[in-house]
Amino acid sequence: MTAPVLVTGSGGKLGRVLRKVWQEERRFRPLWQVRRDPGPGDLLWQIGAPWTGPSLAGGVVVHLAGGRGDLAGNVTLAEAVCRLAEEEGAAHVFLASSSAVYAPDDHADLHETTKPAPGSDYGRSKLAMEQALAHRPHVTFLRIGNVFGCDSLIGNARFVRAVSLTPAPGRAGGPMRSYIGPVSFGRVLGDLIALALRGQPLPRVLNFGLDPAVTMAGLLDAAGFDWAYGPPSPDVLARLVLDVSALGALVDLPKADPAAMAAEWRVLGMDAGARA
């Protein structure tokens, strides 16, 4: 029987991407957890409540759910999910962390061994989650960069006539980031899940994105949005680039290409309502 994969927070941005990308997935059987208003095939379950779903024995848990504005709740939710996985006999848990646990670096790519130094409450909450669950076996923290269309840049650009891009001093194209297209996000995560289901040991922490890094101007151009540089800001994060060599050693990764990522965004219908 196909192994179960519980996806918490499946109604969020990343969860909705996975629902589309995994429609034809045959290596495992997704269980789409929601907190309210379940649709056909959804699993209504409040994280932390007694489990009422099917057995998760030998399966995988992908924890995407957040604290709905309560950042401290990220730790509580992750702890509850890990307890469930242990009680149910799940083989592995992937917890969604973030590149926000790192401090920007103008020169070096950020490796999993780079000392975290989050500069935002969101980043600090994700790091607190990692630290609280560091003792748990069979857990991988995915330090996800930016998923095209689920990010603030492209996600918000759909609703304005022209984007004002904060320049990055000395960097043509504005700030530089690690990105992955939405279809590639689902495929790469699916490949990691398949490894976990086969019993392959996985790292405690994995940076999640594609190489090379891309500029925000290049992303906006690929998506077809009108934009212009706005006023400079001393708070601009000019460069936050992940070293994804550990991820690339486990699964096949495409090259980061803004045009390809924009094409994935359109294929999934995520450009609906864009005012380009």
Automatic annotation (TrEMBL):
It comes from the Bacteria. Residues 72-150 form the NAD-dependent epimerase/dehydratase domain. This is Epimerase. It comes from Neogemmobacter tilapiae.
